[in-house]
Specification:
Length: 208
């Protein structure tokens, strides 16, 4: 399993803005989308291309186009929706496979309440989207769901990941690579990431 912590200055700067305790819903939402766009650029860096002939302004020209497995993005409700626009800016024609999970506040275990996946998942690369990888329970449950329908190529895109969540994924699904803007220090006693972002879902949706 590989974990790519994207250390681009723009990513660091924007994530730093997101950590401010008084950030507005509007700014948090915009920044989540912008950072997601940059992480997507990295997470798609190794997509294979193939030669393709097109009609150029001065006659036929050979160009490259993406080949191989088609992509589906998998936003985890709710907070993963806050990353979707940024990702779709770069890969607009992907299918969207939505899964709904929340963490039980006492056990911290994930509860699944929705799943609507794209067809033919076995032939697709899945890009899971969620701002926060905390205990890793929600991610592991999502990967379980994707593997159950035959998906074999799975990556996760997160804004902030805790070492505890990375370790859990490594143990359960070592074939899944991660692209993150930051690996933070640890979880607090309530399972929140420190220094983290707080509750990303509440900040994106303006709830609480
Ligand atoms: O790694 P874990 O310990 O599973 O925690 C991470 C999950 O918790 C948050 O969702 P939450 O349960 O708050 O749902 P929400 O997106 O609806 O707010 C977050 O967006 C992840 O999905
Ligand atoms: O720090 C955390 C952990 C789980 N979910 C969040 O939104 N934030
Ligand atoms: Mg939440």
């Amino acid at each position: 399993m590989a974990v790519f912590e994207v250390k681009h200055p723009l990513v660091k700067h924007k994530l730093g803005l997101m950590r401010h305790k008084s950030i507005s819903t509007k700014d948090f939402r915009e920044l989540a989308s912008e950072v997601a766009r940059m992480l997507t650029y990295e997470a798609t860096r190794d997509l294979e291309t193939e030669p393709h002939n097109t009609h150029g302004w001065a006659g036929p020209v050979e160009v490259e186009r993406i080949k191989g497995k088609k992509i589906t993005i998998v936003p985890i409700l709710r907070a993963g929706l806050g990353m979707m626009d940024g990702v779709l800016d770069l890969i607009p024609s992907v299918k969207v496979s939505v899964v709904g999970l929340y963490r039980d506040e006492t056990t911290l275990e994930p509860v699944t309440y929705f799943s609507k996946l794209a067809g033919n998942m076995a032939s697709r690369t899945a890009l899971i989207l969620d701002p926060m990888l905390a205990t890793g329970g929600s991610l592991v449950a999502t990967v379980d769901m994707l593997k159950e329908v035959g998906c074999t190529s799975i990556r996760g895109i997160f804004l902030v990941a805790a070492p505890e969540g990375i370790e859990r994924l490594q143990h359960k699904h070592p074939d899944v690579d991660l692209y993150v803007a930051a690996i933070d220090e640890r979880l607090d006693e309530n399972g929140y990431i420190l220094p983290g972002l707080g509750d990303a879902g509440d900040k994106i949706f303006g709830t609480r």
